[in-house]
Design goal:
The structure holds 2 protein chains of 2 kinds. Helix content of chain A is 33%, strand content 14%. Chain A is of the alpha/beta class. In chain A, the strands form 6 sheets. Chain A has a 6-stranded mixed sheet, covered by helices on one side. Chain A has a 4-stranded parallel sheet with strand order 15-16-17-18. In chain A, strands 10-13-14 form a 3-stranded parallel sheet, with helices on one face. The longest helix of chain A has 19 residues. Chain B has 2 domains: 100 residues, Pseudouridine synthase I, catalytic domain, N-terminal subdomain (Alpha-Beta Plaits); 93 residues. The model of chain B has no long low-confidence stretch (mean pLDDT 92). The chains are: A alpha/beta, B alpha+beta.
Amino acid sequence: MKTLDEILLTVERPSRYIGGECGEPTIKPEKFNYCICFPDVYEVAMSNLGIRIVQEVINRVDGAMADRCFAPWPDFGSALKENGIPLYSLGLKMPLKNFDMLGFSLQYELSYTTILYMLDLAGIPLLASERGEEYPIIQGGGPCAVNPEPIADFFDLFVIGDGEDSMRELAELKLKCSSKQEFLKKATKIRGVYVPSLTKPVYDNSGKIVDFSGEKVEKAFCLDLDNAVFPHTQTVGNVEAVHDRAVIEVMRGCYRGCRFCQAGFIYRPVRPRSVGNLTQTACDLIRSTGFDNLSMNSLSTSDYPHLKELLSSLKQSLPKYTTVSLPSLRIDSFEEYYAEEARKNSLTFAPEAGTQRLRNVINKDISEEDIITGAKKAFNLGYSLIKLYFMMGLPTETDEDLEGILNVVKLIQGVYAENPKRLRGLRINVSVSTFVPKPFTPFAWAKFISREEFEYKFNLLKKKLAVKGVTYSWNDYEVSELEAVLARGDRKLSKAILLAYESGAVYDSWGEFFKPSVWDVAFEKASVEKQAYKAEIDTASILPWDFINVGVSKKFLLKEYERAKAETVTGGCQTGCKNCGLQGRCTLV
Amino acid sequence: MILIKYSKTQGAEFIPHLDTLRHLGKTVRRTGVDIKYSQGFNPHMLIFMSSPIALGLKSECELCLFDSDANALEFKALFNANSPKGIRCLEAYNVDKKIKVVADVTSAIYEIQNINKFNVDDILKAPSFTVFDKRSGTEKDVLDKIVNLHFLGDKLYAELKFGNVTLRPDYLVEKLISLYGGEHPVVVKKDVRFLNGLTLREYLRPYL
């Protein structure tokens, strides 16, 4: 048997597992011990803002503390298992089994098997039904929690929506409860909490959902972000994180309403933070972390209503040699001053579809004129690398739409050729991902394309985009297919996920570990027909996630689906209220 | 200029060289002390580090030079109030010259625990002494890179070439265990020697 120190000497990047980072919250065991778990590797986990907010929320509750734990890379995981060392938290180095509650961040569907991997390494039974009082309560939260059904068998409860208030209430409740059952029962009274053992789908003889037993779930909202908990310091990773910078969240939600985008609907209503609050947070973060880069995050930062004012306020307040990055720029709202002082490496825009017709279908209301204007501004600033994001397999898509991607590329090349300031050749990276229908979007009922369609579209694009200066990249079909099945899945999938994990599926979002054949066998053994989850869904049927109300009404989403089919643009919230169901909560109305 | 001697222990020994550089930069930014920046298109902090130490080896003698006019003693206190666990400033000096923290360091002294005792002359007076170099996958004669070996109590002190020419102590330790036995070795870099065998203070005297 080896000691932990000896194991650390044999694994890749051992500093992932030692904790003790600068800015790590000071904690000690309390009456309620919570551990936030992220089912991916350290570098990815350390870039996540949500888990930092949740940790801060819990640590502010009297008698409660929150530690953190991230998925070990397979080399370290195997070494822990071989040497009988249970998975431990980074702060207190306490075995996960000794915590009262473990909270998993559900960021993407392909992390589901990694959750089981972490539980397994911690020595905790994977199925909620097999865990007694002696084991921690397993909780999930984050964007994938809006359809928690595929992983419902593994969790005791989910928190759906914003965690600022709901997680605090949950911690306060746990401090008062003596048994797991008492806690779970009372927890259902907290807004946003879903307990899978108390709310269940009711199936008919054919296996179709006809109703739900138990309480329905309302998404938790945090409407006043300026007064909500937000950490004013940030843990600086021992290993360089994917996003190794200070992060402020300028607003939550997006004005746009692109019909494929789940985040655009589940994070409604739009809630911008004030310039004063953001400036103060940014200064505190930069001072306490020592980062020299600040990222202004949101789903569409160039839509933040006070952006000019914020940038000028940050410029005046932040220390010298601090740069500010704006991710998520939109080509139709791109202004030169955003990038005046930034390094002119590359600029990313997401037209998503190649023709105006298809952009109308997806409610991405940008015109060719917008693309030309945006590109002109970028080239005037000196950019010579443009990244373009598109999707294939969108509802109503034709060959003409795919060929349109080349037209967009040519349009941008044309603008560049006319720019007298150009110093070098223009490079365009075209990334085309496969459309995956997601719950709580107008396209939730749409089909996911078949392999034959994918091959055809992929080959067509490959031929068309074989142009000098253009690089074409894509996602593998199997990865997107699994994401599609899990995204719209129901409880029957839990069995398949468990079987896949037991056969070696883990870290599915990492190309080097993804094993499609393992999943195929698991689906077959669990008698799950993948096609059923990929096909177009009848709009009259009850969906596995229909017991959850995220605020945006099903009626609105269906109306949007019809408008998409009719190629009609609805526009975003900025052009007037579209009655999505959040009137009364939305500050824009 | 400020030269600091700092430790990498308590887990920080697992932080690799480039991440250590990141941490040093961030620590200094947190202190609020003025450090000079390069004047290029992408300005970066002027920090100069000594040669990398192998991952997992503890050290109480890492060197780093910061281009700053601040007071060294105040800097030390601020550094320690802002550094990550295990990275501690042990000594700090205001120096009036850019010290060559790589080129002028010639050897490092390591304290090695849990190695069975042996006669050091068996190695020092042998015609050759080979260790397995994991990077190249070959056995290499390293006798000329061993400056001195001696036991003090149960601990072995090994002075090995360091700087532009380096012998990794972990390679030596593996060989010693295979020859003489020992378990769970603990290696701590204790000190460095400069040109002509000078200690840090002796070497710095003309520049202080």
